[in-house]
Automatic annotation (TrEMBL):
Protein name: Tyrosine recombinase XerC
Keywords, sorted A to Z: Cell cycle, Cell division, Chromosome partition, Cytoplasm, DNA integration, DNA recombination, DNA-binding
Assembly behavior: Forms a cyclic heterotetrameric complex composed of two molecules of XerC and two molecules of XerD.
Tagged with keyword DNA-binding: yes
């Protein structure tokens, strides 16, 4: 069986069984693999051995491909061979002998409590400096951005969750917000008093620009739902104005999680607050908490003088 024909046949499975983005990525990965096999003079699937698959993965790694992308290439190959096994059980599956590359551990960026306060309390180029006559548009933008920033930090929202909020998701009297997270999973999160005050200031300005049928809480200047890209741009502008650094909305979410865990130590409650499916995802913030403790210890303890940890202990072996 020719490799090109098998991949073409598998394309139907990709289209039907996978989300469009995943199908497109797997399709690209398999065509890379097909090109690699052609370079090795391999045209038929029966000739493919486990060593060929290992060589492909090693070559991709040598080209600088990230571990996450390598794992996706691995998953595309496994999916293809599972499909082949269902059609041709007698065909060997060399992908069984591949070891999945381990993900590099990445710890999220986060702000200290002082930085978060500076971000939310300090002046920006848009609302600081000498008083100037405010137009209806600037008043709308200022109150919206303030409410948005306070709510991102108050309720640890993903940017996709923020832009999806409708007016009826917000309970001002009860200080609660209904959020729809990944996979449409619903959760209720509290809203702090500072964020509630900012929202109450924003809502009259919102009503002045919103069309009657628009349900979105956060609107653009034309009265439509605010986009993810617009939120990212606004948050980045606040970070540059107030902290002198680029800032992403997810950094605020990471910061809230870390601050709550430092104060409460209740990992399960933070998991529910963030809407994480598993506790392991939330547990990364315990490492951030330990990092913070270590930094404070090293800078403040009179007899600390600890040596910095080695980046790669294996290099010393």
């Amino acid at each position: 069986m020719r490799v090109a024909e098998i991949i073409a046949d598998f394309d139907t499975v990709l289209t039907q069984a996978y989300r469009p983005a995943s199908a497109s990525a797997y399709r690209a990965d398999l065509h890379l693999w097909q090109e690699f096999l052609a370079e090795q003079g391999i045209d038929h699937i029966e000739s493919v051995q486990a060593e060929h698959l290992r060589h492909f993965i090693r070559r991709e790694r040598a080209r600088g491909v990230a571990i996450r992308s390598l794992r996706r290439r691995f998953a595309a190959l496994r999916a293809l061979y599972r499909h082949l096994q269902r059609q041709h059980p007698q065909l060997p599956d060399p992908s069984r002998y591949l070891r999945l590359p381990k993900l590099e551990q990445h710890f999220p960026d986060w702000l200290t409590v002082d930085q978060a306060q500076q971000l939310l309390d300090g002046p920006t180029s848009s609302d600081g400096g000498p008083a100037q006559p405010a137009t209806a548009q600037t008043h709308f933008a200022m109150t919206r951005d303030r409410a948005m920033m306070e709510l991102l930090y108050s309720s640890a929202l993903r940017v996709s969750e923020l832009v999806a909020i409708d007016l009826d998701h917000l309970d001002l009297a009860g200080s609660w917000l209904r959020v729809f997270g990944k996979g449409g999973k619903e959760r209720m999160v509290p809203v702090g008093q500072v964020a509630l005050t900012a929202l109450r200031t924003y809502l009259p300005a919102r009503a002045a620009v919103a069309a009657a049928e628009v349900k979105a809480l956060f609107l653009n200047q034309r009265g439509g739902r605010l986009s993810v890209r617009s939120v990212q741009r606004i948050v980045d502008g606040w970070g540059r104005d107030r902290l002198g650094q680029a800032l992403h909305p997810h950094t605020l979410r990471h910061s809230v999680a870390s601050h709550l865990l430092q104060s409460s130590g209740d990992l399960r409650a933070v998991q529910d607050f963030l809407g994480h499916a598993g506790i392991a995802t939330t547990a990364i913030y315990t490492h951030l908490d330990h990092q913070h403790l270590a930094a404070v210890y090293d800078s403040a303890h009179p007899r600390a003088h600890r040596a910095p940890p080695r980046q790669n202990p294996k290099e010393d072996r």
